[in-house]
Amino acid sequence: MLAWVTIDRQHKPYLSPIFARAIHKGDWDENSIGWHEFCVVLNENKDQLINVDVYQNLNKNIKVHVVTVESDFKNWLPKDKYYGSIDFLAKYDPEELSKKISLQDLKKCIDYANNSHYQEIHQIKNKNDVVDLMEANFGFHDAHIDEIITKDDKTKILFEKSWGSQIEMTFEKYVSYRVEPYDTLATDWWGDGSLFSKNGFWFLCNGEDVDTINDAKNCGIYFSGKKVSYRVFPACY
Q1: Is the pLDDT of residue 149 over 70?
Q2: How far apart are the first and last CA of the chain?
Q3: How far is residue 18's CA from residue 10's CA, in Å, rounded to a whole number?
């Protein structure tokens, strides 16, 4: 897994693999357990592991400090689990990993990071690409469109900063879209979003779990085109 990491306002965001993801030890109730999530990543200098809480400033405004941009779990243990670690680090307690990792395993982490290549512009071709986009922006929860730019047969959508990231999407080839307010208050904030492919077209709409063309077009906001790509900008602050 690869993520944008933001330590604080004094440090620029940087890319790092996520080496482990877990919940801090504690007696958390079921409704709040997710707010105690942390990730083990490399530091800004890429020479040590550190723990970074995903959510910070909980008593003020929630800031997401780790934004996943690639969520490949093929070397992840336990298999098919959101929380865990890269396989060669499974012998460590995630909360103690950054302090107790051996020099040999740390070198493996650094080498792993050096061999990770981030593709800034992601073209969506399959369901795994959709998963990565949804992971990066919390499934368009609380999304709001800042700007729509249409030129020729290409439409670019810039979303407002939300949940630690800002998403730019581009639809191309036979593009169509509609943007309507939710109600008479003229608000166009999204509750959630869906992105799916049908008949050679990609559809994005402001409805949860939508997977048919008719349902997408019945949403207040939808975009469609034969080709779609996106970029993820870190936007914690």
Answers
A1: yes
A2: 23
A3: 22
